[in-house]
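Dear H.,

Thanks for agreeing to be a second pair of eyes. The structure we're designing against is below in token form, covering all 576 positions.
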């Protein structure tokens, strides 16, 4: 019916049917395409590695067609390392997002490369295998090594000993052993140190079969300590002790060697069981002590340099490896030396005489003083007894004063030779340090190097004539208190003559301290009660003065009253 109506209006029904069929067909095709696209997206979801074709470069991005309804973009920096970006080139990319805000697909070439690289590494290597790669950068805890994928080389696994700055390896190729592969985290840990240790162990075993005492071998200085240096002989370290470095004196191994120096050493001892090797450097040359007597005969005069100073002497270097000792007693004929540094300093050049050689102990005894004339050999001729000398008081002791007669020659002025009559308890009562005085030579002992001097001998002995004539027992004299002791007071009687006022002669009453009765500086009238020329003593009394006064008073009273006996008058006077 509907077709009849259409015919009445002259409408071509067949044409309409054809158009309708075409529309239906187009819709079916569209649905099929949409269905295929949907299936495609399902097959290549986010995180999938796809193949794509480079279409163009827009700004800092590369446009890639991956077969989606819209193109994808990759930042240009992900192509770093590629020689050139070629339009039309097929590459593998990782689908990161189907569409971003701009409607484009987000892709990553770098992540795709890493996935493919990881797959190649996993398929090719396993734990324990050896790989080679280039160090790309330093990260926390170690280095990243590129071998198609970045792998981790911990700092502790770079070398046998910790390197100073691991950044020095950046850009260098390293060969390592794979320690661990973590597939879930796509992480590989490698060790360069492991290979070094394995190689070293192999070479050590070979070396131990070849090395023998007396051989000369090359090595590299690996480490330096205060006591020596460790030399890598190629798989095994040997110790080069500081005492085997040089025949001469060295304070520290660093004076001769530095780390990484290549040296030739002599094998001194080998303990293959303990894997220990003792090395020598000085043994490459002849021991300078072998013909020492020919080069430095006893009594020969030689020059050398002071290289060390001890409290007992100075060591003088005659040549490399040959040092002799100048004992402190061999430094000067006359000077009293407390320490060798008073005579020499390190670096000084000195002339010495060879005294003795002990080749077995490698010791030489030297003398500085014997290069000069011993002044004590002519001392007796120069200063015979009774010679008047002038000198300076150099030092004081309890028993006397040392007078410097000439440089290095002292004479002793004993306390007993300071005064004829004065009791001298200490030299400072007569002389002071630094005083210039005149004295007389009493005696000279060349062997003991002693000169005895006298001060009192400059004048006549007052006990010979002056004192016996001037002082008589019973005389009343005046004196000044010069010194107090626990047993009495010494009075100055003039011209250096002293008398003792004993504590028992101070008073009729008991006196325990002389200072209770007299003081230094007091002028007293005393009576001479004793003179002993042989003992050189004058005894004085103060209490005898009181007794004499009483006797005089009694005599005066008796003269006034002749009827009264003198004895009774004296008795009454005493009682009063």
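And this is the sequence the design step returned. I haven't edited it by hand at all.
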């Amino acid at each position: 019916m509907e077709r009849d109506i259409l015919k009445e209006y002259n409408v071509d029904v067949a044409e309409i049917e054809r158009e309708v069929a075409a529309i239906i067909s187009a819709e079916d095709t569209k649905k099929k395409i949409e269905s295929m696209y949907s299936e495609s997206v399902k097959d290549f979801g986010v995180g999938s590695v796809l193949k794509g074709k480079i279409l163009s470069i827009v700004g800092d991005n590369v446009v890639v067609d991956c077969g989606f309804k819209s193109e994808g973009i990759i930042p240009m920096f992900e192509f770093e390392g590629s020689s050139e970006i070629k339009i039309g080139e097929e590459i593998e990319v990782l689908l990161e997002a189907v569409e971003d805000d701009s409607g484009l697909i987000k892709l990553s070439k770098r992540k795709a490369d890493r996935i493919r690289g990881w797959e190649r590494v996993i398929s090719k290597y396993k734990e324990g295998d050896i790989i080679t790669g280039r160090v790309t950068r330093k990260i926390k805890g170690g280095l990243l090594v590129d071998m198609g994928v970045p792998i981790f080389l911990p700092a502790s696994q770079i070398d046998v000993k910790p390197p100073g700055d691991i950044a020095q390896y950046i850009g260098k190729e390293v060969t390592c052993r794979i320690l661990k592969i973590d597939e879930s985290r796509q992480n590989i840990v490698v060790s360069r140190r492991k290979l070094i240790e394995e190689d070293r162990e192999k070479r050590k075993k070979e070396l131990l079969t070849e090395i023998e005492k007396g051989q000369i071998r090359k090595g590299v200085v690996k480490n330096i300590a205060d006591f020596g240096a460790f030399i890598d002989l190629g798989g095994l370290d040997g110790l080069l002790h500081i005492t085997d470095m040089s025949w001469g004196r060295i304070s520290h191994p660093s004076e001769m060697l530095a780390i990484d120096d290549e040296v030739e050493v002599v094998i001194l001892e080998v303990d293959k069981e303990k894997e220990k090797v003792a090395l020598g450097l000085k043994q490459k040359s002849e021991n300078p002590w072998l013909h020492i007597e020919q080069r430095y005969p006893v009594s020969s005069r030689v020059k050398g340099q002071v290289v060390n100073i001890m409290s007992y002497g100075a060591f003088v270097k005659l040549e490399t490896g040959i040092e002799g000792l100048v004992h402190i007693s061999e430094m000067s004929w006359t000077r009293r030396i407390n320490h060798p540094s008073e005579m020499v300093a390190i670096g000084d050049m000195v002339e010495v005489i060879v005294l003795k050689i002990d080749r077995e102990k490698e010791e030489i005894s030297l003398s500085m003083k014997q290069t000069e004339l011993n002044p004590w050999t002519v001392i007796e001729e120069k200063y015979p007894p009774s010679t008047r000398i002038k000198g300076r008081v150099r030092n004081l002791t309890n028993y006397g004063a040392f007078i410097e007669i000439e440089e290095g020659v002292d004479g002793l002025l004993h306390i007993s030779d300071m005064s004829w009559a004065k009791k001298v308890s200490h030299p400072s009562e007569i002389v002071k340090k630094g005083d210039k005085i005149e004295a007389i030579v009493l005696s000279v002992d060349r062997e003991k190097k002693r000169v005895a001097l006298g001060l009192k001998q400059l004048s006549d002995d007052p006990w010979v004539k002056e004192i016996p004539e001037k002082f008589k027992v019973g005389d009343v004299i005046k004196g000044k208190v010069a010194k107090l002791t626990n047993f009495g007071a010494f009075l100055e009687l003039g011209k250096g003559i002293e008398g003792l006022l004993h504590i028992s002669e101070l008073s009729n009453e008991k006196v325990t301290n002389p200072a209770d009765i007299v003081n230094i500086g007091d002028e007293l009238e005393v009576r001479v009660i004793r003179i002993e020329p042989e003992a050189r003593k004058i005894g004085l009394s103060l209490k005898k003065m009181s007794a004499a006064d009483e006797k005089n008073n009694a005599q005066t009273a008796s003269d006034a009253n002749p009827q009264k006996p003198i004895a009774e008058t004296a008795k009454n006077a005493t009682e009063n």
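Two observations from my side: Confidence is low (pLDDT under 50) at residues 36-43, 552-576. The domain at 292-361 is CATH 2.40.50.140 (OB fold (Dihydrolipoamide Acetyltransferase, E2P)).

Warmly,
E.
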